UniProtKB/TrEMBL annotation:
<dbReference type="GO" id="GO:0005524">
    <property type="term" value="F:ATP binding"/>
</dbReference>
<dbReference type="GO" id="GO:0043138">
    <property type="term" value="F:3'-5' DNA helicase activity"/>
</dbReference>
<dbReference type="GO" id="GO:0006269">
    <property type="term" value="P:DNA replication, synthesis of primer"/>
</dbReference>
<feature type="binding site">
    <location>
        <position position="472"/>
    </location>
    <ligand>
        <name>Zn(2+) 1</name>
    </ligand>
</feature>
<feature type="binding site">
    <location>
        <position position="441"/>
    </location>
    <ligand>
        <name>Zn(2+) 2</name>
    </ligand>
</feature>
<dbReference type="Pfam" id="PF18074">
    <property type="entry name" value="PriA_C"/>
</dbReference>
<protein>
    <recommendedName>
        <fullName>Replication restart protein PriA</fullName>
        <ecNumber>5.6.2.4</ecNumber>
    </recommendedName>
</protein>
<dbReference type="GO" id="GO:0016887">
    <property type="term" value="F:ATP hydrolysis activity"/>
</dbReference>
<dbReference type="GO" id="GO:0006302">
    <property type="term" value="P:double-strand break repair"/>
</dbReference>
<dbReference type="InterPro" id="IPR014001">
    <property type="entry name" value="Helicase_ATP-bd"/>
</dbReference>
<feature type="domain" description="Helicase ATP-binding">
    <location>
        <begin position="202"/>
        <end position="368"/>
    </location>
</feature>
<keyword id="KW-0862">Zinc</keyword>
<keyword id="KW-0547">Nucleotide-binding</keyword>
<keyword id="KW-0235">DNA replication</keyword>
<dbReference type="GO" id="GO:0006270">
    <property type="term" value="P:DNA replication initiation"/>
</dbReference>
<keyword id="KW-0378">Hydrolase</keyword>
<dbReference type="InterPro" id="IPR027417">
    <property type="entry name" value="P-loop_NTPase"/>
</dbReference>
């Protein structure tokens, strides 16, 4: 009889701790297994720590042990850390690691074919084409060779039988296995190379550190952190580069390939299941040298992580808002600490949190204060809409139209930035004043003319634009109010009928794939006037762009979010920073009703230090992050009284602690979202650890969520809606 060994196994479902199973041999923590769970079999991971004392007869047995190296200990600790920090079930965080179950299966070796002998006696035209292509002497996948030659695979089989081709085993290699640190280094400027040296030194040190790479738009931050990646390659170790999803364009990958001779491994929503399996497996084996990915790449099982770069670290898109809520930038720092690897945070407009950490010396701070090659920053000025308004039902004021006319005349690209998708943000009835609202959310429906619908940007509700006002029945009385990018396009096409105009918005048909293609097309100069929402602002390189017009600079300043000023400053710096990157003179024009607003003033003067100093002071006084920590609790339910009652009951159970302030419950600004009524509570404290233990005590004491009630905890919230 074999003795059974008790092991702790964590399963990737909503559980807070591992369960005990029995295995026929001792298993190292990190070993991936299959275990029975109720009636099912699920994946699991052998978890470190004490094993529960369960009588042996009661234990269920591990059903399968994968023949893989165990997941790295630093990854298991990261899962634990993140679950604890975000108040998420441990198993749900593990689930983010075990997302590609097929990656665990042993890899099937592909059988390919290669030219091996003389041509067969009978050479048909189809056979000749295959032989010509195979003449390169390389191993080809059968289907690939057939497709390239434009023949059926039967033709290839025939040539194998004839002995012209032979079968060979092909082991697919990670594309990033061929990366060459010295393929084509950029000739760095003096300041670029001294900055690069600092980053290279942090890789060489081989231990945890955090460095803010703070360089104005177009200063060459990417080129500089590429040098740190080169060092990782020289050491034969692994690096992770995080980018906001939408910045993962062909342009970035091509640029990477020019520098290193091959593409990195990619990890983002457009990569199919097979591609992901490959990256997962290669991260685990160490074969993937550089992975470039969106935030979830943080959960890949890197065998030998030597560097994490977070590009555009200020990006709100790093915050995962659904399920396990976490900020990938902050968690990258944690991952780096646990893996003892350096972390580089890069941005032209660092978050105030990161800036303060650098100012306090917690992060090293390296700067690139000027654009590469002496290119001047765009000259930013204001179009005061109070004195220079656009014509009725137009959105472009005369000075902006003039600048666009000039740019178009000189065959230069212009970009109009308006952070509003669709045709118009509001539709109302001229007769009775009725506003078209979402039935499920506290929002107005957005007019999408292109798709002929009124739609909600929160729940996805869509309806046809009615002929009659649903409230008073008046005919032809509904009018569009305000501009979205589609309406702006009407004006642009009308004013510049000759120009090639392109609208870029995340909801255009074709999805992320088409968007990437269009961004690449713009970079190649295939549009004269680009109209875009915020996604064009993000890290793209449009060499031909020399004018940026911000149609409504005040848009983001209007809401009561504590980060409104910071976000607007970042967004407008980034979007104007798209201009003049190839060295040409360039301009940014900000249409505004509030030219004296500190954010607008800082953009015009180019005095970012003044902006940071002022914003830091506001945060300090308000005990806002990073001087204080916030945690939001969002209570939602199918009806308003239930949500309110539960939020109030929770508030009553909050432990009394003078160092923690609890605000609310208050109805959320989006009081109804996707049919759910929402109340918010906000806890604030100067001490992160105190806030954390207080929250834990509170959540334990609070009444259980029952029925339709849901309680979501959002640590370090970015959204207050
Ligand atoms: N040393 C260099 N040699 C050649 N070209 C360079 C060099 N440094 C930067 N460039 C070019 O300058 C442009 C801006 O560089 P890069 O995109 O790296 O800047 P960035 O600081 O990352 O910009 P942003 O924050 O605006 O995205 C690119 O076209 C890049 O190829
Ligand atoms: Zn809705």
């Amino acid at each position: 009889m074999t003795t059974l060994h008790p092991v702790s196994v964590l399963v990737p479902v909503a559980v807070g701790r591992p369960y005990t199973y029995a295995a026929d041999r001792p298993l190292a923590p990190g070993t991936v297994v299959v275990v029975p769970l109720g009636p099912r079999h699920v994946l699991g991971c052998v978890w470190p720590g004490e094993v529960d004392d369960v009588p042996e007869g009661k234990l269920r047995e591990v059903a399968r042990i994968y023949d893989l190296p165990p997941l790295p200990e630093s990854l298991l600790r990261f899962v634990e850390w993140l679950a604890n920090y975000t108040f998420s079930p441990l198993g749900m965080v593990l689930r983010m690691v075990l997302r590609s179950p097929n990656a665990l299966e042993p890899e099937r070796t592909l059988v390919g074919v290669r030219l091996a002998g003389p041509p067969p006696d009978r050479v048909t035209p189809a056979r000749r084409r295959v032989i010509e292509i195979a003449a390169d002497g390389l191993a080809w996948a059968k289907a690939g060779l057939a497709a390239t030659a434009g023949v059926s695979t039967g033709v290839v089989d025939g040539l194998v039988q004839a002995g012209t081709l032979e079968l060979v085993e092909m082991t697919p290699r990670s594309p990033s296995a061929g990366l060459d640190p010295d393929h084509k280094p950029a000739g760095l400027s003096e300041i670029q190379s001294s900055t690069a040296e600092t980053l290279v030194a942090s890789v060489q040190a081989g231990s945890f550190s955090t460095t803010l790479l703070d360089g104005v738009t177009g200063s060459g931050k990417t080129e500089v952190y590429f040098e740190a990646l080169a060092q990782v390659l020289r050491e034969g170790r692994q690096a992770l580069v995080l980018l906001p999803e939408i910045s993962l364009t062909g342009e970035f990958l091509d640029r990477f390939a020019r520098r290193f001779g091959a593409r990195p491994a990619e990890w983002h929503s457009e990569v199919g299941a097979k591609g992901r399996e490959r990256v997962w497996r290669d991260a685990a084996s160490g074969e993937a040298r550089v992975v470039v990915g969106a935030r979830s790449a943080l959960f890949l099982p890197f065998r030998d992580l030597a560097l994490i770069v977070v590009d555009e670290e200020h990006e709100g898109a790093y915050k995962q808002e659904e399920g396990v809520t976490y900020n990938a930038r902050d968690m990258a720092v944690v991952r780096g600490r646990l893996a003892d690897a350096p972390v580089v945070l890069a941005s032209a407009t660092p978050s105030v949190e990161t800036r303060v950490n650098a100012d306090r010396g917690r992060y090293a701070h390296v700067r690139l204060p000027a654009r590469f090659g002496g290119a001047a920053p765009p000259a930013v000025s204001v179009v005061d809409l109070r004195t220079n308004p656009p014509e009725r039902l137009h959105w472009l004021a005369p000075p902006l139209v003039e600048a666009m006319t000039e740019a178009f005349g000189e065959k230069k690209q212009s970009l109009l930035f308006l952070n509003r998708r669709g045709y118009a943000p509001l539709t109302l009835c001229r007769t009775c004043g009725h506003r078209m609202a979402c039935p499920n959310c506290s929002t107005w429906l957005v007019d999408h003319r292109f798709r002929r619908i009124l739609g909600c940007h929160h729940c996805g509700h869509e309806e046809r634009r009615p002929e009659l006002c649903p409230s008073c029945g008046a005919e032809d009385s509904l009018v569009a109010c305000g501009p979205g990018v589609e309406r702006l396009q009407e004006e642009v096409v009308h004013r510049f009928p000759e120009a090639r105009t392109l609208v870029l918005s995340s909801d255009m048909p074709g999805g992320a794939q088409r968007l990437r293609l269009e961004l690449d097309a713009i970079a190649r100069g295939e549009a004269d006037i680009v109209i875009g929402t915020q996604l064009v602002a993000k890290g793209h390189n449009f060499p031909g762009l020399s004018l940026v017009g911000v149609v409504d600079s005040d848009l983001g300043l209007a809401n009561g979010d504590p980060r409104a000023a910071e976000r607007t400053f970042q967004l407008l710096t980034q979007v104007t920073g798209r201009a003049g990157r190839a060295g040409q003179a360039s301009r940014g024009l900000l249409q505004t009703y509030a030219p004296e607003h500190p954010v607008i003033a800082a953009l015009v003067s180019g005095n970012r230090e003044a902006f940071y100093a002022q914003e830091t002071e506001i945060r300090r006084r308000g005990r806002l992050p990073p001087f204080g920590r916030l945690a939001a609790i969002i209570v939602s339910a199918g009806d308003r009284p239930t949500a309110q009652a539960h939020a109030q009951a929770m508030a009553r159970m909050a432990p009394v602690e003078p160092a923690v302030a609890l605000l609310g419950p208050a109805e959320a600004p989006f009081a109804v979202l996707r049919g759910r009524h929402r109340f918010r509570l906000l806890a604030q404290s100067e001490s992160a650890s105190l806030l954390h233990s207080w929250l834990r005590a509170w959540l334990q004491a609070a009444p259980r969520a029952r029925g339709s009630v849901n309680v979501a905890v959002d640590i370090d919230p970015m959204s207050f809606l």
